[in-house]
Amino acid sequence: MTSAPAPDYGLGPEYVHVYSGKVRDLYSTPDDRLLFVASDRISAYDWVLPTLIPDKGRILTALSKWWFKRLEGVVPNHVASGRIPKAVAGRAMVCERLDMLPIECVVRGYLSGSGLTDYLAQGSICGNGLPPGLKDGSLLPKHLFTPATKAAIGDHDENVTFDEVIVEIGQEEAQEIKRMSLAIYEVALETARERGLILADTKFEFGFARSGKNAGRIVLADEVLTPDSSRYWSEATWSPGGPQPSFDKQFVRDWLTSPESGWDKSSNTPPPPLPEHVVEQTRAKYIEAYEILTGETFA
After folding, report:
1. Domains in the chain, start-ordered, CATH in brackets?
2. pLDDT surpassing 70 at residue 151
3. Which of 89, 91, 110, 166 shows the smallest number of beta carbons within 10 Å?
């Protein structure tokens, strides 16, 4: 996987850049852990956009930490104690090093996104057969584990079957990440519902802990249940039959595919900068998701 260039956070030479993804930058800490820094970058249609969304990294970090805490009794995670440099305070977490599993663990409770595309084409998602007549936004008959391969920056994740996951990582490991993914989704779905939200789908990443109390175990990694990795809808306005208003980068996607942007997503041309009104609407939607879920005011 190709890493993006390291941004300059002013961390100092004791923090060594390890990897940069679409949103997060990883640094090795002086005590050989990892510093996960959530930037204000935003991606859409497999492109990292040239425009930043102010405070997005702080929102993602605060919400991930909130969820990791709530899920401690459900699954172990990679969050560790450690000093956060002042330069990235509020947007960073210290985490244990893991041997990551090469699978995106997607769980779906409702029909949307690439799951809808697959269903319309073949009546199934990742080998899970579904009844005819479902619509965009429909509640699925049961929660589905629909894994995908991890793609490099600029490439698209590809949905795969559970049998393909078994071949890739082994049967015991595949069963464990499926069990953990569905368990997390059940808890998060109910938590969201208590707050008037629907968690339509979400994705998780897992890895083997190298050391510490969870050494050798599969643990939850990266971020968790943020608007970047999850599709949240309002329960009050949910109406199957078309796209649902969501608490994520919907404004960005809508603008990029509008005549106003002048951008063709099927081309190899990078997307244009976002206008200020799209930036403001997107920031507001991320904050709204944080405040509804946590019950806290973002400051």
Report:
1. 16-97 (3.30.200.20), 99-234 (3.30.470.20)
2. no
3. 89
